[in-house]
Write a structure and sequence with these properties.
It is built from three helices and 13 strands; from the N terminus they run E-E-E-H-E-E-E-H-E-E-E-E-H-E-E-E. It has 212 residues and is an alpha+beta fold.
């Protein structure tokens, strides 16, 4: 029989991150990326592709507040960090996928080709299963470090030896617990490429101010 494959398009987008902030704010920036057009994917026979439906389950705002509360206990603190190009840290699994690149990022050597395609190897935002593959990868690292999923609270974990609570919201991570344990907790999941952890500030669109 035919080898199984899927075929799709990619396209560039640009959005203003934190558009709700006042003009001139350093966090209000334009961000460009190339994404997979997940609503227009065909299989090897030209039919609409069927995916594994690896649904991701993001953390809730209540979960984020629970991490904040744990960080307010005496001797505790709360920190946050963003993963760098999160989805693309993992390889795309499942059926082999081929894509067309936008003309503006095609190599010059492709100029003579009408509709060139290439293999999509890395997990790309917009693919219907991208969130599931990223979650499987990042949660695997978190669990291997000794964090245990909190029952009934999606994408939240607790480290019983270090008393650290951790929330993972796609590429945003927030943890709280004893100040002396935070550095080693972040180090234990450093296989996930992240920016340097900072004190909690703006997280999931909410500004955090800690008062004595």
């Amino acid at each position: 029989g035919e080898d199984k494959m899927t075929y799709g398009q990619t396209f560039p987008i640009c959005n203003e991150k934190h558009s709700e902030l006042p003009d001139g704010h350093p966090d209000k920036v334009y961000k460009g990326r190339v994404v997979f057009q997940g609503n227009n994917v065909k299989d090897e026979g030209g039919e609409w592709a069927i995916f594994a439906e690896l649904a991701s389950c993001p953390a809730t705002m209540e979960g984020s507040k629970a991490v904040d509360a744990w960080g307010l206990f005496e001797g505790h603190a709360t920190q946050q960090a963003d993963a760098v190009k999160a989805y693309a840290q993992t390889e795309l699994g499942g059926t082999e996928t081929w894509i067309e690149l936008p003309e503006l990022i095609r190599p010059k050597a492709w100029a003579s080709f009408r509709r060139p395609v290439c293999r999509l190897r890395l997990n790309l935002y917009g693919h219907p299963d991208a969130g599931g593959y990223w979650e499987s990868y990042s949660f695997g690292i978190i669990k291997k470090a000794g964090f245990i999923p909190i029952e009934g609270w999606p994408s939240m974990f607790f480290h019983p030896q270090w008393n650290i609570m951790l929330l993972a919201y796609v590429d945003d991570f927030k943890m709280s617990g004893p100040v002396g344990n935070l550095a080693k907790a972040w180090a234990s999941i450093s296989q996930i490429k992240m920016e340097k952890p900072t004190d909690v500030g703006r997280f999931l669109g909410c500004n955090h101010t800690v008062h004595d």
